[in-house]
């Protein structure tokens, strides 16, 4: 029964067909229609926001350095990749400011990497709450992405400080303001990804291992660490890379922060199309499984 998705209206209709008074009853474990589902999410917006803020403020509470890790961890990650790929493997391939190139790529990709590799556990980790309370389950991936957005406030600050401090020193420009709309599109893309992989992770728990590999493949194939386009000779493969929204997103961040320019319209359209397309597909895909999320596995 719990794994048999049914629309709420179907259940109410069956009760009424049996001569039972369904008025005033609130169905549990069923999928409301799309409009009602969106309305329920909006009604719980304060809970979703509060949950996200609380988890960010307490996630490092057991560590001696506490919230300092929100800044220290991205700095250590960027330093590690710069040493390995910039100094040891010398993968710069003529990039003038390779330190800034790596810092921007690694730290801005972290958010999408978390959506891909950790989104599979969103529903599993929220299982106690799902079984105890009635609420739209899409609240969980939405809260996870809001939590990530709050963490990215610190990460973006680290990016800006590091590229200004590390030689040859990038200086603040008016184009840096464009990092805000680019991140908004990244947030929309991440939410769509999280909605998709959350349901996939619920249906097939083993897929979490696979998605970790997918995340690493996206990192190495999207120009996050080194200029991948300089290694591509095949025009078909190059066209696939150009259509990759993560590749376009990272390139746009570098254009506004390092080059001081405005990304071309083509990049905005590719990233926007993927972001909103993934969000629409992901939301409908997740909503279709709403009635099954309380079932035991």
From TrEMBL:
Tagged with keyword Cell membrane: yes
Residues covered by the ABC transmembrane type-2 domain: 65-289
Keywords, in A-Z order: Cell inner membrane, Cell membrane, Membrane, Transmembrane, Transmembrane helix, Transport
Entry's localization field: Cell inner membrane
Cited InterPro entries: ABC2_TM_bact-type
Source domain of life: Bacteria
Main localization category: membrane
The keyword Transmembrane helix belongs to this UniProt entry's keyword annotation: yes
Transmembrane annotation, as ranges: 70-92, 149-168, 174-197, 268-287
Membrane topology: Multi-pass membrane protein
Sequence similarity: Belongs to the ABC-2 integral membrane protein family.
Protein's UniProt name: Teichoic acid transport system permease protein
């Amino acid at each position: 029964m719990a794994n048999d998705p049914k629309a709420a209206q179907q259940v109410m209709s069956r009760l009424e067909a049996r001569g039972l008074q369904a008025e005033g009853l609130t169905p549990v474990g069923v999928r409301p229609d799309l409009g009602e589902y969106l309305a329920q999410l909006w009604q719980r917006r304060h809970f979703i926001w509060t949950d996200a803020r609380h988890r960010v403020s307490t996630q490092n509470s057991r560590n001696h350095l506490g919230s300092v890790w929100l800044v220290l961890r991205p700095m250590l990650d960027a330093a590690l990749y710069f040493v390995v790929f910039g100094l040891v493997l010398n993968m710069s391939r003529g990039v003038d400011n390779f330190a800034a190139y790596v810092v921007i790529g690694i730290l801005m990709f972290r958010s999408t990497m978390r959506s891909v590799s950790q989104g599979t556990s969103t529903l599993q980790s929220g299982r106690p709450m799902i079984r105890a309370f009635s609420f739209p389950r899409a609240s969980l991936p939405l809260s996870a992405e809001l939590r990530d957005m709050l963490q990215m406030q610190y990460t973006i600050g680290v990016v800006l400080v590091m590229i200004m401090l590390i030689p040859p020193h990038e200086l603040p420009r008016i184009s840096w303001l464009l990092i805000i709309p680019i991140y908004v599109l990244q947030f929309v893309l991440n939410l769509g990804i999280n909605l998709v992989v959350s349901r996939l992770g619920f249906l097939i728990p083993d897929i979490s291992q696979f998605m970790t590999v997918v995340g690493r493949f996206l990192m190495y194939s999207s120009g996050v660490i080194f200029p991948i386009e300089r290694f591509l000779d095949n025009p078909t493969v190059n066209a696939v890379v150009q259509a990759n929204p993560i590749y376009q997103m990272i390139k746009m961040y570098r254009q506004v922060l390092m080059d001081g320019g405005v990304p071309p319209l083509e990049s905005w359209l590719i990233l926007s199309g993927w972001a909103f397309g993934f969000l629409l597909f992901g939301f409908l895909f997740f909503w279709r499984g709403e009635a099954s999320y309380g079932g035991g596995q």
